[in-house]
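Quick one: structure for this chain?
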Amino acid sequence: MFDAVELDDGVVMRLLAAGDGPALAAAYSRNREHLAPWEPLRTPEFFTPAWHHRDVAGAIARIHAGTSVPFVLAQGEQIVGRVNLSDLVRGVFESAHLGYWVDERFVGRGLATTAVGVALHHARAAGLHRVQAGTLVHNTGSQRVLERNGFERFGLARRYLRIAGEWQDHVMYERLLDE
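Got it. Here's what it folds into:
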């Protein structure tokens, strides 16, 4: 389905695996403050291995159902980021949503840009026509990652997601994979 890909700095992009719960809990705990402005409010339980063990089991079920492709970025045993193709729709739509984050230590080093490119390659190989992503209006770093990967801005979704406890507008991007 997807062979692991070596990125930079000894980071490997691979599919999420059943045993990744503890490493994900550690990654989210380590990046708690870094990710807080860009994510939903998290309960204390979210940062536990038990929560991530359950979440990983659900994500693997969605892989088998064909509705999601969750990747991790791993440096040795440590997870240093995520890239997700989610909400896969087949048939007349052939599309997915893209989400991603990288460990604070890797911000500004091109890792997110490279990982998104690998995810797009996988999406194209899987026969998808379109990948869509949204960023907070003020998240210019994420917007640059998308634009470097050929995404085009196509609109503004008002009060799109509840991030950091508030309904926030998002700039919407799309990438057509068969152009």
